[in-house]
């Protein structure tokens, strides 16, 4: 059966780099990108062309960063899409491959981050669930020393990106994908939770700050209303460009008011 002809618009590497420059992406800056390839339209070259266009806009002195999460290295008891039978859980835990930044694929964040992860020269941080990958002169500074018990907090690439004054580009992605907001969660009262994963010595459990993207769409709406956000379009994809430190600071004020979690939280280690 023949596939239907593409509806367009036709997007190329040059289209992407030109539109990014029109949006205000500057050569030499550091950019954290959340993306959806399917939102763009028909891209000639697929995710490779998108990454090339991003790198063209940033130039040789710019740095591209993306989430490179691998949440499937997690407790099968929590899997919902799809779930696995309970009688499998112990065997799945015992045989799950240990995280390796060189070979563990990304999961659930789209094909563009996976393309960045496998790009020549890309570096990737060490957290087995919430790693980031980066290309460019600041890649090592962003990805090194990602603490194994700090998914998206002060000892993660997000804090490094904040310090560097990076900007966030939402390329066809919504605010519910904006990892910068999670850094703010580490700075307001939040429960601690046990998080299971495969480790070098077998299945292990670490204590982490509870994170959730619940109401991030509302947070993003208010942030965009109150703070400067550059909006535009590349192909059929809506784009938003804004400073990461600005987003974190706004979320740090917004979350305690609109999504309070201030209560006595039990310590999962007790």
Concise synopsis of the structure shown:
The protein has helices spanning 13-23, 46-58, 89-95, 111-117, 139-143, 157-163, 180-185, 216-226, 244-258; strands at 10-11, 30-35, 42-43, 63-67, 123-124, 132-135, 167-171, 192-199, 202-209, 230-234, 237-243. The strands form three sheets. The protein has a seven-stranded mixed sheet with strand order 5-6-4-2-7-11-10. A two-stranded parallel sheet has the order 1-3. The chain has a two-stranded antiparallel ribbon with strand order 8-9.
Q: How would you portray this structure in words?
A:
This protein has 270 residues and is an alpha/beta fold. The chain has nine helices and eleven strands. It has helices spanning 13-23, 46-58, 89-95, 111-117, 139-143, 157-163, 180-185, 216-226, 244-258, and strands spanning 10-11, 30-35, 42-43, 63-67, 123-124, 132-135, 167-171, 192-199, 202-209, 230-234, 237-243. It has a seven-stranded mixed beta sheet. It has a two-stranded parallel ribbon with strand order 1-3. Strand 8 (192-199) and strand 9 form a beta hairpin. The chain is globular and about 50 Å long.
Q: Which structural traits does this protein have?
A:
two-stranded parallel ribbon; 7-stranded mixed sheet; 270 residues; alpha/beta; disordered C terminus; globular
């Amino acid at each position: 059966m023949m596939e239907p002809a593409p509806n367009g618009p036709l997007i190329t590497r040059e289209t992407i780099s030109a539109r990014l420059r029109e949006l205000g992406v500057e050569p030499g800056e550091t950019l954290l990108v959340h993306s959806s390839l399917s939102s763009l339209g028909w891209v000639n070259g697929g995710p490779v062309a998108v990454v090339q266009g991003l790198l063209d806009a940033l130039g040789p002195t710019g740095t591209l960063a993306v989430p490179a999460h691998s949440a499937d290295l997690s407790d099968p008891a929590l899997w919902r899409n799809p779930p696995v039978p309970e009688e499998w859980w112990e065997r799945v835990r015992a045989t799950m491959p240990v995280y390796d930044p060189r070979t563990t694929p990304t999961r659930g964040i789209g094909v563009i981050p996976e393309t960045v992860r496998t790009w020549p020269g890309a570096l990737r941080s060490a957290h087995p669930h919430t790693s980031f990958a980066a290309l460019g002169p600041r890649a090592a500074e962003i990805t090194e020393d990602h603490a194994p018990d700090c998914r998206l907090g002060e000892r993660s690439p997000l804090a490094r990106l904040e310090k560097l004054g990076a900007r966030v580009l939402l390329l066809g992605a919504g605010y519910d994908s904006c990892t910068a907001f999670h850094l703010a969660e580490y700075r307001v009262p939040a429960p601690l939770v046990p998080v299971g994963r495969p480790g070098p010595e077998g299945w292990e459990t670490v204590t982490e700050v509870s994170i959730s993207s619940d109401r991030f769409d509302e947070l993003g709406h208010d942030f965009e209303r109150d703070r400067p956000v550059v909006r535009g379009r590349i192909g059929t994809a809506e784009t938003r460009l804004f400073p990461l430190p600005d987003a974190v600071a706004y979320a740090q004020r917004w979350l305690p008011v609109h999504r309070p979690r201030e209560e006595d939280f039990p310590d999962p280690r007790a």
